[in-house]
Amino acid sequence: MDQVRTCLACGREAPRELLLRFAAAPDGTLLFDAAGKAPGRGLYTCPSAACMNGLPGSPRLKKALGGRKAGIEPATLLEAARDQIGGRVRSLLSLARKSGHLLIGTDESLGALRTGSARFVAVAPDAAGRSRGLSGERCVRLGRVDKLAMGGLVGGGECAAFAILDDGLAASVCRDLLRLDSLLDDVPANGRGGTVSRSARRSRETGR
Ligand SMILES: [Zn+2]
pLDDT tier at 1 (50, 70, 90 boundaries)? Predict the structure, then answer.
């Protein structure tokens, strides 16, 4: 069982691997730690813009830093988290493709489910038609990573669904893809002017 950590913004407890980890520099600046292995004290939040926005005023964070003021820019942290987790998903999918453990497309994923070779199937929220058949405990229908973003993650074009055939890769891709999906929920409070369209564009370009 994974270790439990607390979100410094909302106080929710969750398995460490489902949260985002930050490392505090000596001057109090928070840096996003995608791999979760940076030295120094780990600080955690839920993978959501709402919780990153809540960090600057968080009494829990102040306490965790021993009363020091933290240097935090939620928009920068969010951007770094999206970029780094998106990059991790892309490289995991590239590994899966090279080792023959990635199938792209609705029919291919349906086939892999039928034969039992699919360990994890990701389905875009805007996937329609035969993708309805992609259901069951190994399938996840995403909330915000749409066909275009999924296409970017697997290497171009649009992608309604893909299947991972390897257990280890399936677990890693599933975890990071869900975190990425959560991070696309909204924009940080200090992002101003055209944030809605920028957010929408970013979510479409996540895979690039
Ligand atoms: Zn939280």
Answer: low
End-to-end CA distance of the chain: 34
Whether residue 7 lies inside any domain: the answer is yes
How far does the centroid of ligand 1 lie from the alpha carbon of residue 9, in Å? 5
Assigned domain for 191 exists: no
**Distance, CA 133 to ligand 1 centroid (Å)?**
33
Give distance in angstroms: CA of 93 to centre of ligand 1.
Answer: 28
* CA atoms of 157 and 178, how far apart (whole Å): 21
The model's pLDDT over 86-129, given as tens digits with 9 standing for 90+, comes to 999 999 999 999 999 999 999 999 999 999 999 999 999 999 99
CA distance 176 to 130: 26
Residue 155 lies in a domain: yes
Instruction: Output the CA angle 123-119-3, nearest 5 degrees.
Output: 95
Q: How far is the CA of 44 from the centre of ligand 1 (A)?
A: 8
Domains identified in the chain, total number: 2
CA of 199 to the centre of ligand 1 (A): 20
Q: For the whole prediction, is pTM greater than 0.85?
A: no
Q: Tell me the residue range of the domain where 129 lies.
A: 100-183
Residue 57, domain CATH? 3.30.1230.10
Residues 61-74 have pLDDT tens digits of 888 888 877 778 88
User: How far, in Å, is the centroid of ligand 1 from the Cα of 157?
Assistant: 34
